[in-house]
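Sequence, structure tokens quoted for completeness.
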Amino acid sequence: MKTYIIGDIQGCFDELQLLLKKIQYDSKIDVLIFVGDLVNRGPKSFETLEFIYHLPNKKIVLGNHDLYLIRLFYDALPKNKLHHDDHTLDKILNHPEASYLIDWLRHQSLFYKNEKQKYCIVHAGIPPQWNLNETEQYADEVCHALRQHDFKIFLANMFGNTPDCWTKELKNFDRLRYITNALTRMRFCNAQGCLDVKTTGIQSPLENYRAWFEWQNKNLNGYEIYFGHWAALQGKCNVPHIHALDTGCVWGGKLTALCVETGEKNSVNSKIPEK
């Protein structure tokens, strides 16, 4: 049995199949863990989502594009806020079997911690002032909001870049919005956990802001942290115990899987022309 963590797929279904063949994935015994952003921008989001839904022995953390799909499906997208007009999600949105797939997606988590093997999975990152227990607790708060009967109210209030600074006194949608942004959109922050979610490159233009993993977080207790979301890094992260797995497949890069037990990485080239 092996455990493979797979970077952002974003609808690159064909590359996923090639990657599983390359690692000789055995569905009877192996475990697949996905770091989020299963869908959007790539050509086969529906096929990707349906395939992963039917997989045995899998775990998923949600990414910002997955949450965006959920909002679109339930028509909970404010027209005057963040909006991706170039999405490739119409096949899912219009498919007669979409409902069960989106409902299943809505019940996934934003954070996964394996205490036995001492590793964690998050889509974007962990603010430097949070420990792992807090991160798990805060992720559960968002998951609860996604799963309760009036979840559409939360979806309608999830968009936005503020508040951008964390305090435990944050309440209601402000609190949930910060947690969601930190776990699914963060790249840069300052030492106090104030976020720069607009910058997508490898350096923030804001003074005293660094990549979230460059702040020494002594609260991670020696766990290995695996994340996606940041294609511009090209899978390169030179901080011990932190592993970047988004290698930009949807941008013409690669799709990558890392084996937890051996640390070995395998990748396949994207079939999408480099953008």
User: Anything to note?
Assistant: Residues 3-269 form a domain with the Purple Acid Phosphatase; chain A, domain 2 fold (CATH 3.60.21.10). The chain has one domain: 3-269. Confidence is low (pLDDT under 50) at residues 79-83. Helices lie at 13-22, 45-54, 64-73, 90-93, 98-106, 132-147, 151-156, 172-184.
